[in-house]
Amino acid sequence: MAKGRGTADVEAGYRGSSAPPVVAPEWRSRLYIDRPADLHELARTLSNTSVLAIDAEFVQLRMRNAGDPSHRLALLQFAIDDNHRTSWVVDALRLFDLSPLRDALESPHILKLFHGISADARMLATRGLVARHYVDLEAVSRSIFGQSESGLQSMLQRACGVRLDKSFQRADWGKRPLTTAMVTYAARDAQMTYVLYGWLRDNYPWAVALHEMDAEETIPMVASWLRPFLESGRGRSVEMAVAEAGLSGRTQIVTRDLRSALAVVQHPAHRVRIFRIIGELGLKGMADVLRPYLASPASEERATAVRALGRLRDADAHPTLQALTHDPVEDVRLAAQHALEHRSAPAASKVVREGGAGQPTRWTAGGASDDDGDSAPADDWRAALRNRFRSDDASSGSS
Hints:
This protein is α/β, with parallel strands linked by helices. The protein has helices spanning 36-47, 102-106, 117-126, 137-145, 152-160, 180-203, 205-211, 227-232, 238-244, 251-264, 268-281, 287-290, 299-312, 318-324, 330-341, 381-396, and strands at 2-3, 9-10, 29-33, 51-60, 71-80, 86-91, 111-114, 134-136, 212-213, 350-354, 362-366.
């Protein structure tokens, strides 16, 4: 049993059906690449494939200058659609120039497979390499089975009954020469990423298609204040972005921008960021656009829509939230339980914006009466701005 924050006990893990497992194949050979001539030969081979699984190993830098990356790329591992004939481990420490791999990685005709792309993409970028046209199988798995079930170890157990050897997970990949066991371990993750892709593609094509990023795909056209949230996620204050855009208290414009963005974004990662903004700003007038996502096939969209509607205390969503406490995915069950338990919390305070034209804005917050003497701290403008949107949204019913 897992216990959510402030929730009753909720069953842990994925509780739905799963496609039958497959037998994991064995690769017939594994090549270690540490010479330029062999790297060029590998590059030619990779350029003629259509599916390329990629994994990487890093070494932590104990001494570095300010602004330098904390890790250095040590190995690059590849497996391709060659009927499990060969996999490769590239020594990125001995090979200074990895540019021969650039064409294959950037080719729009080759689908690149990662399991958890963020760290690998950062390491590739330090060597001038960018993967285009890719799919992150961790994100695919999360959409189907939830966050706690999306790790490579969990997914391989589900897909083919394989338990990965993690004895070298904390190995020093900067040491040379590498042992045969270390090279085998490194190659295995790329091989198993390829196997997992085949299982997901055959059984959950909708989820693979949902997360496949085309080579030329860019962030859709949205309001300029929203773009940083779609590009980099959480690393920015919603209230600060709204204030800097001159939209403080301008609920109708903010709502219009968010509705327009939801009409054009395609990927779950972008949608859930918009859901969070709606919830954080307390835009009750946007509950109608969130409710359909309670039935989304992607679990992260269901869970985040639940959280946002819980923050909005949307009474119309109550029956669906009750049903979602029995969702197959643990993340959704926890979110629904939490939303139901907190739906009766007190409503937001009324907020008054003070300051005339040309004067600095000061936000004050009160209870049921403007004259009750309670006021927000002068520097608590973020909470006041959130309440400002809630107050305006409730009174105007903007859309």
